[in-house]
Amino acid sequence: MKLVTCGLPYANGKAHIGHLRTYVPADVYVKYMRMFGEEVIFVCGSDCHGTPIVVNAEKEGLKPRELVDIYHEHFNRVFKEIDIEFDYFGRTDEEYHHRRTQEIVKRLIDNGYIYPREIELAYCPNCDRFLPDRYVEGICPYCGATARGDECDQGCGRHLEPGEILEPRCKICGSRAVFRKQKHYFFKLTEFKDFLLDFLSNLRGTENALNYARQWVSMELKDWCITRNLEWGVKFPGEDLVVYVWVDAPIGYISFTERACESKNIDWKKIWVHGDAEIIHFIGLDIVYHHCIFWPAMLRGAKYALPSSVIASGMVKVDGKTFSKTRGYVVWLEEDYLKSGLNTDFLRYYLVNYTSHQKDLNFSWEVFGEKINNELIANLGNFLYRVTYFAWKNFREGEKAEIDAEVDEKALSAIKTAMDKIKNGLANWEFKVVSDAFMELSSFGNNYFQNAQPWDLVKKDVEEAKRVVASCLQIARAIVLLSYPVLPKTMKEFSKVFGMEIEKEKIDSAMAVSKFVISKPKIPFQKIPDEKIEELQHIMLERIKKAEEANKISVNEDKEEQKKEQEKQEEQKEQKDQKAREISYEEFQRLDLRIGKIVKAEKIKKSRKLMRLEIDIGDEIRQVVAGIAEEYSPEDVEGKLVPVLVNLKPAKLMGVESRGMILAADINGKPVLLHPDREVEPGSKIR
């Protein structure tokens, strides 16, 4: 048995194509697995708690549950419209979910993995309240970028614990916050390091997820604050606090499984307690940390079964630009796509076939139109219709045509090849490979049909014409079956031409040879007019234009405020500089400074300043990103010895992880590299 889950959509905004980067491939996977004869339970649901929902509800004058009702219904509806079919689509604000979350939290307490600690939290004197998560923003203590309370979303992407953020401000009133002490509860994540290293060495999934998680665990773990100062959420046992949303949200996978199993008369404990199922999580790349580190540690501590695989999709861009709702680089699923009247299978095909599942997907209306019209319709759609219509027209008796002839072994071999590619693609989570397989089979069929020229054969050798048509129909029927999980709406309808109930068919029946009974076919796909693509592109460009104008207005209105803020920052910088003038010898000893040798260097694309370096630091080759590309070429620095700060916390710059810092002099704002005055071994300590 397999349990397949998707990361829970947050119930505080509308669905966009970025969401579908996770949900469509997961649905495709589930449909294929069922056609291969696997028993699969597929669950998801709305993530209903957390600070953003409370903040958005306050802005719209709603109660949190009222806001959740709106967006839960929205996601449930649009998923069904695009043929994403969950066995259960739940919500985390329901009583059954609260009950399961509290049971797991109590288990963790009883097992000694949760403890209280007094910590300093951002507090707004003006609002007279502690500021959880996204009620506060400030400066990331690791990279210096503007950050929100729980994550450095504008800089290094690091998860931030309560109280870590620097220079906190209240997002409600804009006032400067202060730090005050309060008791909160922590999960002993540090006790699970050895377990996590072993777990991640055996976990299956996409390399983008596994590599990221392994790097984090191998470097450092911190105990994790799991309570928040909110009224909306799952109550922490015995306290006037709620459980952090990243504790209760993944527990939804368990509580939703319970509900799905009720309707199937299955004991959910077989999956989540006894471990008698393969648990597969489909997620976005931005929540790898939570699913590969926090979540398995919680499960282990509560003695629940562990996931088998974590599948992370690449990110989504729009017209080559970073996905951004505020800047207009977004395609809304309902108002842009569904209301356009376009076949939903077109979007499903584009999402799985554009690129590898792990790579970034770029959505462009122009490319979308070309890919659908010139690939899907001109190849697959054309083959299905021309073959079935030819068979029906030339061999029908009454309303249907019957063709009973020997199928060419070449046709069966091509089908078998496509089936093998699909199996291999699914095993490696490569949905482009899967969809390419049935597209290649369609190309083979088109060439076979064209080369055999049955329109001539039918005039001089009817039996041979039947053999050609039977072989092509065998290919066409196989394509309908093999493409159904990607193109369910279209293939469910077109399968009626063959008299199939496609939802009951198995993949192996693609090789089954029998007499064909063909009904009159309809054209499976309608070409997308150029005018429709231009219209949709215009809508997006207008959105971008309006967003840019709104940003300009906002900038002008805020100029005075920015000036005041700049003056405050300069004052704070001066205070920081004063503090930074003296440190203790013990503080200096914490710095792991070594001589490193640059063994490889290359400029980072789309950056004028940044260069990626591979540095031998004695016991390993460390990747470091340095802002030296304007002053040095890769050839200048390769082979050089440089001082390296090794134990600097990792950060991502232009999407490239940096695990250290080389030291350089600052001469008029330009870096000048430092070198030892004699040859020393890489890894030599600097004292």
Automatic annotation (TrEMBL):
InterPro entries: Anticodon_Met (IPR041872), Met-tRNA-synth_bsu_C (IPR004495), Met-tRNA_ligase_1 (IPR023458), Met-tRNA_synth (IPR014758), Methionyl/Leucyl_tRNA_Synth (IPR015413), MetRS_core (IPR033911), MetRS_Zn (IPR029038), NA-bd_OB-fold (IPR012340). The keyword Aminoacyl-tRNA synthetase applies. Zn(2+) binds at residues 140, 143, 152, 156. It holds the Pfam family tRNA-synt_1g. Binds 1 zinc ion per subunit. Its main location: cytoplasm. This is Methionine--tRNA ligase. The gene is metG.
